Every structure is written in C-alpha cells, then in structure tokens.
Amino acid sequence: MGLFQRPLSPRSIRACLWAAGLCALLGATIAWVGPAQPYQAPWAWISFIGMCVIDDFVLGSKEGAIVSELPKFALLAAVIVFRRHPELTVLVAVTAAPIGSLLKGQRWSTQVTAAAHWVLAAVVGAAAFRLVGFEDTPHFVAATGVLMVIYYALGPVLGAWLDARFTGAAFAATFAAHRRLAIPLEVGGVLLALAWRTAWLEPAALKVADGALVTVAGIFLGFVWGGRSSRVFAPGTPIPLRPLVAAGAVLLVSQATPSPWSWLLPLGLAVVAGIWATWRQVYPVACGALGAYCNEIVRAANDGRMPVEGHGVLAAIGNRADSYALAGSHTNFAWLDDRFHLPPPFPGIASAGDILIAIGMAWFVASLMLRPSSTAADDDQAEVSAQAFDVAA
Questions:
Q1: 1 to 4, 5, 6, 10, 252: CA distances (angstroms)
Q2: Taking the CB of residue 292, how many other CB atoms lie within 10 A of it?
C-alpha cells in the first residue's frame, strides 16, 4: 500500500507523459491519419508549424527548462482551423514541438517531453471538439468552450503541476506563473482561427503566418551559427518596444483607411524606421525598412494598388483584388511589383520589397541570438541546472 502512496519521481512522471503522448499518437494515427483525404493546401499546416514554434519561442519554456509548456494560442487555433482534418493538428504538434525545443537548445529529454505533451493536447482537444460538433453556430461555440477548458487543463494546470514536481516548488507558486495571461491568449487563439477562416481578415492572418516562417528561418540561422535563444530577450535589445508597438498600431489603422492614407502611413513609417536604423547602425531593420519603402512607393505610383504579374495570379487573389492591379506597359516602377513566384508548397508571388523585408526579419532575429552575453555564467546556467536535475532524478 505504501508503494502506491509514494509520490512519483520526476523520471517516472516524465515516462508516464511520454507513454500518454505515444498512446495518443497511435490512436490518432489509426483513427484519423489512415482514413484521411489529402489536404490541398500544405502551406496552411506548414504555417501553423511556424506559428507554434514562434509561440513557444516567445511565450513558452526557456532555454534551460526541464519541463515543457504548451503553445499559448497557436496550437489551440490549429485545432479549430483543422477541425475537419484533425490529423493535421497532430502533424503540427509532433513536428513543431521538437523543432521549437531544439532551436532553444533544450536537452533531448525536454524535447521528447514537449512532443508528448503537445501531441496529447492536440489529440484530446481535437477529439473533444469533434465530439461536441461544429456544424452549426451553437455547436461550434460549445465546442470552442470545451476546447478552451481542456486546453487550460492540459496547459497551465498540467504545466504548473509538472513544474512543481520537477523543481520541488509549491504548486501555488508555479500555477500563478503558468496561468498568467493564459485565458486572454486562448481567446487570441480563437480569434486567430476565426481570422484564418474569415475572408476579409484572411490577408492579415496570412501575413502573420508568413512572418512566423521568416522568423523561424532567422532562429534557425542563429542556432546554426551558435546563437542562444536566451540572448533574444536579454537586456539591451536594440529596438525600442514602445515605438515599435505604436508603429504596429499605425499599420493596423492604415489597413482600414482609404487611399492615399493606406499607403502614405506605411511609407512614412518606412522612411522614419530606415533613418533611425541607419543612424543606430541596426542594419537588419534598415534592410526591412528599405523593403517596405519599395512596396509602398510602387503602390503610391500605381493609384494605391500593388501591380501583379500574370492574369492567373490576380484572379487567384479573389477578395483582395481591390488592393492589386494587373501589371502592364502602363505600370510605374514595374521592377518593384509582385513578380517572383514562391516555390511549392507556398502559394502566391512576392516583390523585391517582400524579399528585402524577409531578409531583414531573419537577419535581425539571428543577430539577436548571436549577441554577446553579459557574463559566461549566464550562458552556462541553463546547462548546469539541467545536469543537476538529471543527477537528482
């Protein structure tokens, strides 16, 4: 009797979580992957892999963590977006978890634990969502509510319990940290899913996805070159956060304003950001500002619309056609229009400005990871903590 009353060791808890994740993966493979029909837009689940990695990189467990955390909103959004294809949600979880953990430099045991944790949440959440149903509005709302409750239980609650058992801290203290902003971020995940499936919000959602993939590319480059994820959020970040938030607000306003403000506001921001970045020698930001300037100047020269090469591409844009125009002999600055076809599986085309913005974003993230640390002890602290845990376990 005393054997069953003895608290599980961290190693046993980790083994149980691995087993639960494996069982969930096997069950999902039999129930969903086998009979699944091919999904026609692979860029969609690839985008969610990128968003989950960024979600975990910014809001999840840190570099030296020995326990995993669920993505705060991106995986929940994936459950809703892929509600008719739950196998894609499982694919997102089983792919993004180890990638995100690896890029943060976490140990292999943490990577496996994260994969098991994410897969378990994806399978249970998707199964509950489909069990409640989503064919009409009342069922969809009810299913979303059930999903949020399950995600909260497997996210902040389970994560705090694991944190308390693995570190020896009190559950109340760990739960206070894990539940911070959990509900608003879950609401944000629901809104992201709705934006992904709403026609007039889809362009903004696609830009978020594109930005996430470019950011992952920057993280990967920084990781390959020996960078550390902990340095991204270390003191001394060369970007003033308040002006950055203000600039984002201005860009959102510009999306809802008519021409010429729709291009004039972003153009002004690009000029200001470029001058500031050049003055402060933050060259990745200067590169991105130059790309934004190129995009807005060609829009300004063509009645506020971006010229597009090819009738087929313009027709595929659909409800966003008001922001674009077919390029031709009358097009001003034609060499800056949307003319570079993206490689499969990504849809659409890009401009020279888009390429400069992508390079600038990836370059900036990689440069943050490669910044020199303040002390050598800061870099080694996570590794020492993880080794100490393994010895204790």
A1: 5, 7, 9, 21, 62
A2: 22
156, two tokens: 């902040």
| Structure-token match 């098991």, residue found | 116
In single-letter form, the type of residue at position 190 comes to V
For 95, 238, 274, 284, 366, the CA distances from 280, given in Å and listed in that order, are 38, 9, 10, 11, 18
Number of residues that this document lists for the chain: 393
- Residues 194-233 pLDDT 10s: 988 777 677 777 788 888 999 999 999 999 998 888 888 7
Give me the residue spans of the domains in the chain.
2-202, 241-369
| Predicted TM-score of the model (pTM) | 0.86
**Burial of 130: CB neighbours in 10 Å, binned 0-12, 13-18, 19+:** middle
Q: What is the CATH number of domain 2-202?
A: 1.10.1760
Q: What angle do CA 180, 114, 38 make, to 5 degrees?
A: 110
Q: Find all residues with CB under 8 Å of 371, minimum gap 6, and list them.
A: 231, 234, 236
Closest by CA to 130, choosing from 45, 122, 118, is: 122
